[in-house]
Design goal:
Length: 723
């Protein structure tokens, strides 16, 4: 009787110990030993109920099949194999060691082993919780060492807007702390729904928007940035359709279309018109002649971009579709780019036909925008990721692979497109960033998820349609249950893709991980720093405790292949050096003269008077292009054109690319060793400069602009080839 009493006493003590540990682990979280968010081996909060159902002497074993957040027990989509605990030899006498038999949980198809132990009641208790907590009781058994508990990461979601549900779900999976109404003290991460300026009072932490990203990804600015790169590297940037900016280039557009039709009367090209600040397909339409352009307020043409229309897209089930890929720009300097391994394929809802005068207005046939096609009677909401009007990109790739398509080549081309596009955007983004967060001023660091819309042509060549600064992160859709009454229905496809993107973006931006990288990467290159980060993730156990990252790093991983394209970035570095006043985005006349003098670009045939005329001409022209700009001076794009002009003037016999590279070497060589704050010698008072040098430009015309005006239009042959 006394032996039985002692056994019962031991079991009761163990029950209380388990309950105490469960309560403590729910309050204190540590990410170093978490498990996939959709895996649960044992629900510790339910320990009392489970223990009461088990046999008091510990001989009977219960098998529980737990679920976490309503998901099945999976790791990266793989079901866990059945757990077959081994019997343990444990003494039941008082004073003997407690049961601490560890067991291995084999995950089918992964080769992973997850450690767990068998408690006295026969239940399997995982030492890796579904959350980011460390197993304290395991530490005690290993010698009484308790793992150091770290503060939970805090996220301000008060400005999240449409991405709120996916964000909340991701924060729950990571067991971080959310502040939906904001917080008086600083948070680690601020999640904005629209722009960097959603909250103006942030001086620390991380914000999920870059200053100026919205402005840079408007149709006109994106076209300008890519076209600048096309002037230097036309072959590398042939993934962007030929475009014209209206109303600025209206006459050029009319002239080139007229010449095209005069040369070949059979060709009937189609063009797509996109409003500069439009979104969700609003205001987009197709034309076949410049006379079809819509005007506003009398005879004024709305600011927009006209692009050649891709008439031979790849079709699936006779439907046109595009690809929405999510790209994380983790940092501008050093540049870090990640691409989501999974994306969305958005289908039209009317069988495709090549454009004709009769079907130009059929938006459900030609436009892939979800916000348009969802109103079609043919739109199909599907619970499957491989059917319906919105599918996963992987399901499309699987279907193409079954037909013998080289999927690796398709992915490689898409990755190259993304990297090249971001490289084109970075120079001006750095100007915006320095204007909002000047060096030395306290402020947050930034990151951002972008939405790339890509079309595959019939020959499988990817074409960039546009880039979205605020891609929709909604994981549900509206459904009309009765006239005028709508309810939100979960979208499995959206949840599959978007929750993973947000969750793993947060994981990459974990301040503890970034701090660890910074402290261990001193004196190493950015490429080495990334290697350090990967090693630290594995060391902390994050790779095993959560699903593998759905975000693939592509830069600086592929720096060697693409770094030569960063020519405009080098020009922007020179531009930023001479801006002078903190917080400004435009170069004044004194700064431009300082640039010319410090780089030693003036000579007897190009006097400072000629420099002043060049500055006035180009600045005046760009002021006419951007009449709404409140700040006077030379913007980065204007400076780039001036740089091209100076390069062509100095190295006349070379192609533009070589001219620009040679001038960069001259400027960087002259500036090497100079302090960025070096000021020129005091200038003499502006007296009459005397007669102008014969070579001084009376009007500014960059060589790039002149080539564009006289370049023959070759649309159909390029855009519609099938091989």
């Amino acid at each position: 009787m006394s032996d039985h009493y002692e056994r019962v006493k031991i079991e009761l003590q163990q029950m209380k110990a388990v309950e105490t540990e469960a309560a403590a682990e729910e309050e204190h979280l540590s990410p170093a030993s978490s498990v996939p968010a959709d895996v649960s081996f044992t629900a510790l909060p339910r320990a009392r109920r489970d223990l009461s159902r088990s046999s008091i002497n510990g001989r009977s074993r219960s098998k529980s099949r737990g679920k976490a957040d309503g998901h099945e027990k999976q790791v990266n989509g793989k079901h866990l194999s059945d757990v077959a605990p081994r019997k343990s030899d444990c003494s039941q006498e008082k004073g003997q060691n407690r049961v601490s038999n560890e067991q291995n949980l084999h995950i089918k198809g992964t080769g992973r082993l997850l450690k767990s132990k068998t408690a006295a009641n026969g239940h399997v208790e995982s030492c890796q919780r579904q959350t980011d907590e460390k197993c304290e009781h395991r530490g005690k058994e290993d010698g009484g060492k308790v793992a150091k508990k770290r503060r939970a990461v805090t996220v301000d979601t008060s400005k999240a807007k449409t991405s709120l549900e996916a964000l909340k779900m991701s924060i729950r999976l990571l067991k971080w702390k959310e502040f939906p109404m904001g917080r008086r003290t600083a948070c680690d991460i601020y999640w904005h729904g629209v722009s960097f300026h959603d909250n103006e009072n942030i001086v620390s932490g991380q914000v999920n928007k870059f200053p100026g990203m919205i402005e840079m990804l408007r149709k006109i600015n994106l076209s300008r940035a890519v076209r600048t790169m096309q002037e230097i590297y036309p072959e590398e940037y042939n993934f962007y359709p030929r475009s014209w900016i209206l109303p600025e280039e209206y006459q050029l557009f009319c002239t080139q279309i007229r010449l095209l039709k005069d040369n070949d009367s059979i060709l009937k090209p189609t063009f797509i018109v996109k409003p500069d600040s439009g979104s969700q397909g609003d205001g987009i339409y197709l034309i076949r002649d410049p006379a079809d352009l819509r005007v506003i307020s009398g005879s004024q043409i709305k600011q927009s971009v006209v692009q050649e229309y891709i008439q031979k897209p790849l079709l699936i089930d006779k439907l046109k579709f595009d690809i929405r890929l999510y790209v994380l720009v983790r940092s501008l300097d050093p540049l870090e780019i990640y691409i989501a391994k999974e994306g969305l394929s958005r289908f039209c809802t009317e069988p495709y036909q090549e454009p004709s005068q009769k079907n130009l207005s059929h938006v459900f046939m030609h436009l892939t925008n979800y916000s348009l096609n969802v109103h079609s009677g043919n739109f199909v909401h599907s619970d499957s990721c491989s059917t319906g009007s919105k599918r996963t990109f992987s399901s499309v790739l699987y279907r193409l692979a079954s037909k013998g398509v080289d999927i690796k080549k398709v992915w490689s081309d898409i990755i190259a497109l993304v990297i090249k596009t971001v490289i084109a955007l970075v120079p001006e983004l750095k100007v915006y960033y320095q204007a909002d967060i000047p060096p030395g001023k306290p402020g947050p660091t930034c990151f951002q998820i972008l939405g790339f819309d890509i079309l595959l042509m019939k020959n499988l060549k990817p074409v960039l349609l546009e880039v979205n600064a605020n891609p929709s992160m909604r994981i549900e859709h509206e459904q009309e249950v009765s006239p005028g009454v709508y309810e939100y229905i979960p979208s499995p496809v959206d949840e599959e893709v978007k929750v993973g993107v947000i969750r793993d973006t947060l994981r990459l931006m974990d301040p503890a991980q970034r701090k660890h990288i910074t402290s261990n990467a001193g004196g190493v290159s950015p490429e080495d720093a990334i290697v350090v980060e990967t090693a630290s993730d594995e060391k902390e156990g994050l790779a095993d405790s959560l699903p593998s990252l759905c975000l693939k790093q592509v830069f600086p991983k592929y720096t060697k292949q693409f770094n030569y394209l960063r020519v405009v970035d080098r020009i922007a570095t020179i531009f930023l050096r001479f801006l002078g006043v903190k917080g400004t985005m435009k170069l004044g006349p004194t700064g431009f003269r300082t640039f010319i003098r410090n780089c030693k670009l003036s000579n007897s045939s190009f006097s400072m008077a000629s420099v002043d005329i060049l500055y006035i001409d180009i600045t005046r022209r760009w002021a006419g292009i951007n009449p709404d700009s409140r700040e006077a001076g030379m913007c980065l794009q204007a400076f780039i054109e001036a740089f091209f002009y100076l390069a062509a003037r100095r190295f006349k016999a070379s192609p533009l690319r070589e001219q620009v590279l040679l001038l960069l070497e001259v400027c960087e060589g002259a500036l090497e060793g100079q302090s960025p704050t070096d000021k020129p010698r005091p200038q003499k008072s502006h007296t009459n400069p005397g007669p102008m040098q014969p070579s001084a430009p009376n009007t500014f015309s960059s060589p790039a602009l002149m080539r564009r005006r006289h370049q023959p239009l070759q649309i159909s042959a390029k855009a519609n080839t099938d091989n």
